[in-house]
Amino acid sequence: MPKSYAWFVAGVASWALAAGMHQVLFSWLVVGELRESPQWVGAAQTFQSLPSLLFLLLGGVIADRSNRRRLLLWLHAAAALAAFAMSGLVGGGALGLPVLIGYGVLWGSIQAFASPARDAYISEVAGPDLMRAVTGVTLAMFVASALGSRSAGLGEWLGNAPTLALQAGVLLLGMLPVARLPSVALPPRAAGERMALFAVREGLAEVWHSARLRPVALLVAADGLFFMGPFIVLCPLLVRDHYGGALRDLALVMMTLTLGTIAGSLVVLLRGGVRRKGRAFLLALMGVASCLLGIAAAPPFAVFVALVFAWGVCHAFFFNTSRTLFQQDASPGRRGRVLSVHSLGLLGMAPVSNLLAGLLADAVGPLATCAVAGAAMLVLPVLAWGTTPVASLE
Q1: Which whole-number Å values give the CA distances from 305 to 221, 286, 298, in the listed order?
Q2: DSSP states of 292-314 as a string?
């Protein structure tokens, strides 16, 4: 792999480490510190994920039209400033639901622009083996995310405010490898690409008119709808209400999903990739659905953690195969926009998923909500196997 790939992986890892800390801390602040009800837990997570729905496609346009290295440096600095500000507010006793929601919206907005910029960079630094490069980045990202999730548990001893300040420091350090990335020449713009909305529409149209990518994109969106809320909203509620856990237990659960993703990515990497990517993609979705149904059976905490680990393994195959399919089929001049459609399917559905998970958990409980989501997602890949070309994609 080129040297620039190593700097890129280091930059991704620094962001993922901070993001892993952020997700655990944000979830614990709303669940453990504010002790909010399920619908408000879902609402807080919805506001945090809403910018993905609003800004990811625009982020893809900006990634195609901007100096990506400079853009990522600014986004690291903005995220660090947000975490430092939140640390001051928490340390000063100003934590409340409006403050937390505002912080979540700001973090989500920064993330919506960072994700397409990083995705579009991969092809420029990957070298000849794209599948191996994508899997390597995914592996580094989830190793760092697992460390970040576990590091967030330090908040139980250090306090939430110092741990938020530590998160900000990680983001600032991440600027060092990003600054070493090569400056990539931008492709010439077509005359009609002067308007951002037109450019967004082009990215959507390229995916929609692709017989290979359209069904994959729809299934990625289904994954975002049925799986994001259960992990982000229902798992913290189960840790608090069903298992009587603390911050360290939530950190363990969130780290475990990431460890499963690491294990699955290692399998993909050691195998040298996946030949039948479409089939592996569908089987991975069925696997996650089965894990949710297992969680709905209210197992002991150790079994719950094991099911979360299996969820992560399946997610690794889902993530690596779907992202590689998008990387392979995206035209170079629109790669940021096409890949932002993938991110939109996964993250853009999160606001709806989080809100529905919170409302349904308030009505019937987190366990029953897991059962509903798992059953729904078990049906869709089975239908796609028989009615779309996804299973035959290489």
Answers
A1: 25, 19, 12
A2: HHHHHT---HHHHHHHHHHHHHH
Tokens for 56, please give them.
Answer: 């990811």
For 23-43, write each residue's pLDDT tens digit: 999 999 999 899 888 989 999
* Rg, Å, the chain Cα set: 20
Q: Average pLDDT by consecutive 10-residue portion of the chain (394 residues)?
A: 82 94 93 90 89 78 82 96 96 94 94 85 71 78 88 87 96 95 64 49 72 82 88 92 90 90 83 78 92 96 96 88 76 65 74 90 93 92 86 78
For 159, 164, 194, the CA distances from 155, given in Å and listed in that order, are 4, 9, 47
Nearest-angstrom CA–CA distance, 27 and 254? 10
Q: Alpha-carbon dihedral of residues 36, 38, 39, 44, nearest 10 degrees?
A: 60
The two structure tokens encoding residue 256? 């475990």
Torsion of CA 57, 60, 65, 66, to 10 degrees: 120
Residue 302 CB coordination number (10 Å): 8
Tell me the whole-structure pTM to 2 decimals.
0.74
List domains and CATH numbers for the chain.
3-176+196-392 (1.20.1250.20)
Q: What is the DSSP code (8-state) at residue 127?
A: -
Amino acid 41 reads: V
In single-letter form, the type of residue at position 377 comes to M
Question: Which residues, at least 6 apart from 201, have a Cβ–Cβ distance to it below 8 Å?
Answer: none
On whether the CB atoms of residues 337 and 199 are closer than 8 A, the answer is: yes
Q: How large is the greatest C-alpha to C-alpha distance in the chain, in angstroms?
A: 60
Q: Which residues of 73-104 are buried (b: 16+ CB within 10 A; e: fewer)?
A: bebbebbbebbbbbbebbeeeebeeeebbbbb
For residue range 317-338, what is the model confidence (pLDDT) as tens digits? Answer: 888 788 778 777 666 666 666 7
* Contact call for residues 347 and 215 (beta carbons, < 8 A): no
Centroid of chain to Cα 182: 25
Alpha-carbon span 123 to 120, nearest angstrom: 7
Q: Are 165 and 30 in contact (CB under 8 A)?
A: no
User: CA 94, 85, 354 angle in degrees (round to 5)?
Assistant: 75
Distance CA 316, CA 384 (A): 20
CA end-to-end distance (rounded Å), the chain:
23
Task: Return the amino acid letter for 122.
Answer: I
